[in-house]
Amino acid sequence: MKACRSIDELDSAVADCRACPRLVAWREEAARTKRAAYRDEIYWGRAVPSFGPADARLLIVGLAPAAHGGNRTGRMFTGDRSGDVLFAAMHRAGLASQPDSTGLDDGLHLLGTRITAPVHCAPPDNLPTPDERDRCRHWLITELGLLAPDLRAIVVLGGWGWQALFPALAESGWTVPRPRPRFGHGVRYPLTPALPGRAELTVFGCYHVSQQNTFTGRLTPEMLEAVLVEAKSAAGLG
Ligand code: SF4
Description:
Blueprint: H1 7-15, H2 21-33, E1 58-61, H3 70-73, H4 81-92, E2 113-116, H5 130-147, E3 153-157, H6 159-172, E4 174-175, E5 188-193, E6 201-206, H7 211-214, H8 221-234
Parallel strand pairs: 1-2, 1-3, 3-6
Antiparallel strand pairs: 4-5, 5-6
Helix pairs in contact: 4-8, 5-6
This protein binds iron/sulfur cluster.
């Protein structure tokens, strides 16, 4: 496996990854068959790199790209309903340059914030297997290491991402308490560094921006924005 010395190198390497046969087949099948509304578009159909600056102080961790969202547009949370909710809230919180995210050429940039996922390929039923999660973990570990000089806060969207993140944090040089912190909406946990070059990190829990949560009111725009504002402050982004 090629070592990535920069976020740019990491993003390129992720986009070329074909390590999970089931997910490669699924993402390419979705790109071939397409959703009717997007039948004239050329789908990305590859692993979706993280999105945001290399010196981000805040990291948002989701689950995996959507077959007709990130897998279509090539950017995390871009072009689907979950992303509509997330980017609108990020814009209100001062973390995104605009509230809309429709495609790679839409002009959106994130402010001090990067969005990643423990699994970079769209999975069937939006659910990767434990093996796929574990196979993808090395990308997250590399990303955490590269972001470490500036990284001060993480918002995790949903319990699945929460479970996936903590082993990566432990391998990336932060002390993870045992038992592991429990996921909940609005929880926050400070983590102390275990390696030189790491700073104290605050990890926030937030319900995922899936339609099951946003359509039912389990996660309201106000609840999401409140977590983002708190994390922005913890990250020293004002
Ligand atoms: S899920 Fe991760 S490890 Fe598997 S093919 Fe996609 S990028 Fe590679």
